[in-house]
């Protein structure tokens, strides 16, 4: 691919720098140049003028992964900017995040560059000599081939009228200078991701090329468009049991072939209903026109599709076991997230059933722990929830104070219950959003008090993905931060991987609202896998928290190797990695050598009600 005149690509820069005896000009930034603007950057790397760069080239960056797990081409961004320093900054940030960036500084050459470079997104200065950004946007939009290409203005112009004028001509968004690198990356990735997804929809790419199943993103969009609806049909979640043991025995390649074959069986058993692979081990079936009395029979057919006949993996005969949870849409769900949550609850119940099948029943019809649910309701009314804190410590030391928040409920007799003892009952009666809001209120209050005392901290706050997907939750979070005068960067929303996979589409919308405020997201319980790894590139994450399995099975070489690869993958995406439930020095040492950035667990300090850990002298 060739660039238009006046356009300079990252490839050109790398080629020039690698020629023997070629002097590197001062405006060519060295590797990792963009990190000097990041809050987590170390000491600035020296700029070398007229000398070959001393540090090696940065490691290869993992290309973006589509929602169906397939590898995509790197995102292409055309930077239209007449200020060379601003252009180099944006180019360095984007290239550092694994994208392809090209720069054009002359307005008259923009269209030629758009035609040859064919960008996924145009990042444009609003004020250009000769032809301003509004005129250029009009020019780009007149060409049918670029009618849907996102255009984002990077500008220091505070005039809202000027911004509205640009938006009316077809621009998609504004980023105000100066912009933080992480915000720039997140904004660009979000826009390109959506544009590519829409392009796949327009071109008929809603199905996986190998299995023929609907892609996860298409299925979630399908459900969002059909729920709420007429109440007809049902949702099924089909889980392949023992996925971890299968991976250990047959490896990633063998397991993937096994699950591809399983996809075909489930598709046949679904008898024409829409099917997608929701995660590594879970399939989602949307039966749009199934009568209520047919649901149990269909659930048995889906279960037996995997268990009745054997499969072949690495020349071995394998017989799979499946769990099936389902819900009728006649329950009148208000949105797709609520329906998915109900099917997920049924699946959890199915795991405990001898037949491996369970249908969802609304809480008033279920035989759940009514006493505990009532205790939770009363605790909410009496404000008897409180937080415990566990430090999240940098393995290399540092004075940045940050803690994981852990929820506790004080009973009427004064005793404290950990979250695991009461959250299942609260979840069964749909109290999670109330609890999540209370947790946020407690966390934001602590952040405000610490800031007023001149002792700022960062808090990792766990939230249910179902709460984050609810309408108005993002507005509630931002309003709370504004009311207490708390900086968004002081809070990290922690969401579990298994929930994030199910509610990925709504979660991306929540993240898009959080990023401009500086609020970051942590993917908790991260365990490597095709769908989980795709999620790393789809969400604007700042952190990943490793699953406890990695710290508890470090004597297993296969687990250690998988963990190192997971850490390297996260680092290539610019994410910081937390090793959790670290209980002994040997586990801490292994995690440190594997490249984690932070340690959390009882080895560092047990959870307590005070934030009194000495981060200044915490070198592991």
Concise account of the structure shown:
The protein has 620 residues and is α/β, with parallel strands linked by helices. Strand 20, helix 18 and strand 21 form a beta-alpha-beta unit.
Describe this protein's structure:
- With about 625 residues, this protein is an alpha/beta fold.
- About 40% of the residues lie in helices and about 20% in strands.
- Strands 14, 15, 16, 17, 18, 19, 20, 21, 22 and 23 form a ten-stranded mixed beta sheet that branches.
- Strand 10 and strand 11 form a beta hairpin.
- Helix 11 packs across helix 12 and helix 15 runs parallel beside helix 17.
- About 10% of the residues have low confidence.
CATH topology of the largest domain: TIM Barrel
> Span between N and C termini?
48 Å
Sheet with most strands: 10 strands, mixed
Helix content: 40-55%
What's the overall average pLDDT, rounded? 80
Entry keywords:
620 residues; alpha/beta; Rossmann fold; Alpha-Beta Plaits; TIM Barrel; 3 domains; 10-stranded mixed beta sheet; 21 helices; 18% strand
Layout: helices, strands, pairs:
Elements: E1 7-9, H1 10-18, E2 76-80, H2 84-96, E3 100-104, H3 110-117, E4 121-125, H4 133-141, E5 151-155, H5 160-168, E6 173-176, H6 181-202, H7 216-226, E7 234-240, H8 243-269, E8 274-277, E9 282-287, H9 295-307, E10 311-313, E11 316-318, E12 322-328, H10 336-350, E13 357-359, H11 370-382, E14 385-391, E15 393-394, E16 402-410, E17 416-418, H12 419-428, H13 432-452, E18 458-462, H14 465-469, H15 473-484, E19 491-496, H16 497-502, H17 504-514, E20 520-526, H18 530-538, E21 543-546, H19 548-552, H20 557-572, E22 576-579, H21 585-594, E23 598-599
Parallel strand pairs: 2-3, 2-4, 4-5, 5-6, 12-13, 16-18, 18-19, 19-20, 20-21, 21-22, 22-23
Antiparallel strand pairs: 1-3, 7-9, 7-12, 8-9, 10-11, 14-16, 15-23, 16-17
Helix pairs in contact: 8-9, 11-12, 13-15, 15-17
């Amino acid at each position: 691919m060739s660039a238009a005149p006046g356009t300079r690509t990252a490839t050109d820069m790398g080629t020039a720098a690698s020629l023997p005896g070629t002097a590197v000009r001062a405006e060519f930034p060295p590797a990792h140049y963009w990190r000097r603007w990041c809050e987590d950057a170390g000491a600035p790397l020296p700029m070398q003028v007229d000398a070959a760069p001393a540090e090696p080239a940065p490691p290869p960056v993992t290309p973006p992964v589509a929602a169906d797990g397939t590898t995509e081409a790197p995102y292409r961004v055309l930077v239209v900017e007449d200020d060379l320093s601003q252009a180099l900054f944006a180019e360095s940030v984007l290239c550092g995040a694994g994208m392809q960036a090209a720069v054009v500084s002359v307005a008259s050459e923009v269209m030629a560059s758009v035609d040859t470079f064919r960008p996924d997104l145009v990042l444009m200065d609003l004020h250009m000599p000769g032809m301003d950004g509004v005129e250029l946007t009009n020019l780009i939009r007149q060409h049918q081939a670029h009618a849907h290409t996102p255009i984002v203005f990077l500008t220091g112009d505070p005039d809202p009228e000027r911004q509205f004028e640009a938006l009316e001509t077809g621009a998609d968004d504004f980023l105000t200078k100066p912009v933080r690198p992480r915000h720039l990356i997140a904004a660009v990735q979000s826009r390109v991701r959506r544009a590519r997804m829409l392009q796949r929809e327009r071109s008929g790419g809603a199905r996986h090329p190998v299995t023929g199943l609907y892609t996860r993103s298409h299925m979630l969009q399908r459900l969002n468009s059909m729920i709420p609806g007429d109440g007809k049909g049902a949702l099924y979640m089909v889980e392949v049991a023992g996925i971890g043991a299968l991976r250990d025995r047959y490896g990633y390649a063998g397991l993937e072939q096994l699950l591809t074959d399983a996809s075909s069986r489930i598709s046949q058993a679904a008898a024409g209903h829409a099917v997608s692979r929701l995660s590594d081990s879970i399939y989602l079936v949307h039966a749009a026109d199934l009568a209520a009395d047919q649901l149990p029979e269909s659930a048995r057919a889906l279960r037996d599709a995997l268990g009745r006949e054997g499969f072949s993996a690495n020349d071995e005969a394998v017989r799979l076991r499946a769990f099936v949870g389902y819900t009728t849409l006649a329950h009148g769900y208000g949105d797709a997230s609520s329906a998915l949550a109900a099917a997920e609850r049924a699946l959890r119940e199915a795991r405990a059933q001898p037949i491996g099948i369970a249908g969802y029943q609304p809480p008033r019809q279920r035989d759940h722990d009514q006493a505990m649910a009532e205790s939770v309701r009363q605790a909410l009314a009496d404000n008897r929830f409180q937080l415990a804190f566990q430090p999240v410590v940098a393995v290399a030391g540092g004075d940045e104070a940050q803690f994981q928040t852990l929820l506790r409920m004080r009973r009427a007799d004064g005793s404290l219950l950990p979250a695991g003892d009461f959250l299942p009952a609260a979840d069964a009666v749909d109290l999670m959003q109330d609890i999540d809001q209370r947790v946020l209120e407690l966390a934001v209050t602590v952040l405000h008090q610490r800031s007023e005392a001149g002792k700022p901290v960062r808090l990792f706050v766990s939230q249910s993905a179902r709460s984050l997907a609810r309408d108005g939750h993002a507005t509630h979070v931002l309003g709370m931060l504004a009311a207490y005068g708390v900086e968004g960067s002081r809070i990290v929303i922690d969401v579990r991987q298994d929930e994030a996979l199910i509610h990925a589409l709504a979660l991306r919308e929540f993240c898009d609202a959080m990023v401009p405020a500086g609020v970051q997201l942590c993917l908790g319980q991260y365990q490597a896998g095709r769908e989980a790894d795709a999620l790393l590139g789809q969400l604007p994450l700042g952190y990943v928290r490793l699953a406890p399995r990695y710290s508890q099975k470090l004597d297993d070489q296969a687990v250690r190797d998988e963990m190192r690869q997971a850490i390297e993958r996260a680092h290539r995406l610019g994410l910081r990695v937390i090793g959790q439930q670290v209980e002994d020095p040997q586990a801490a040492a292994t995690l440190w050598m594997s490249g984690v950035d932070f340690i959390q667990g009882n080895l560092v300090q047990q959870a307590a009600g005070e934030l009194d850990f000495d981060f200044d002298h915490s070198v592991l």
